[in-house]
C-alpha cells in the first residue's frame, strides 16, 4: 500500500512510494515479514475502515462447526462481508465467526485462498509471493487458483461459487465463474445439461419451438 505523505499509524511509518508487500522472489526482491515484524504492520481497509495487524488470525466456523484459522488481514481485505463482521466485533469474544451457510470443504478452500494472499501465512508455507487486492496476481497465484478449481467436482465448484458470493469475495468469485464459463465453452444445450446435471423440463415440442425462435444462437 502506498501513501502520499509520511504518516504514523501506531509505531509504524510508511514512506511515499513504499509498499507493504514484498515483490515476487528474484534479484533485489524484499523478503516477507520476519517473526519480529509479525503484528507490527497495520492495514486499514476502506470498506468499514477495518484495521488489523499482519500476523493476526481469526477463526471461521463452517456450518458443521469445524473451525479454520485464517489471516485476519487477508480475510478483511478479500471479503467485504468478513470485513463488515470484523468491524462490527463479530470475533471479539474469541469464539470466532460462524458461517452457517458454508460447509467445511468449501470454507477450507476459502481459507486457503485467503492465506495464499497474506504475507505472513504465505511466508510460513514457503510461498514466494503474495498480492494485495490492488495488485495484478502473480503467476504463482494464477497457477494456484487454476489448480484449485481444476481439481474440483462440479458440485464442489458450485459450493465454492456460493461461498464466494455469500462472502462477497470478488476475486474468488471471478476465478470460479471463469472455470464454469470454460466448461460451457463450445458445448450445446444437451452437453451443458449433462455436465451440470440439469434436468430438461421442456417437452419435445417446446424444445423444437425454442430452437426455431432462436436458431441464430444454436447454429453451427
Automatic annotation (TrEMBL):
Residues 171-217 form the SKP1 component dimerisation domain. Gene3D superfamilies: Potassium Channel Kv1.1, Chain A. The keyword Zinc does not apply. Residues 1-12 have a biased composition (Basic and acidic residues). GO terms for biological process: jasmonic acid mediated signaling pathway. SMART domains: Skp1. Keywords: Ubl conjugation pathway. Residues 1-43 are annotated as: Disordered. PANTHER family: SKP1 (PTHR11165). This is SKP1-like protein. It comes from Urochloa decumbens. The lineage of its organism: Eukaryota, Viridiplantae, Streptophyta, Embryophyta, Tracheophyta.
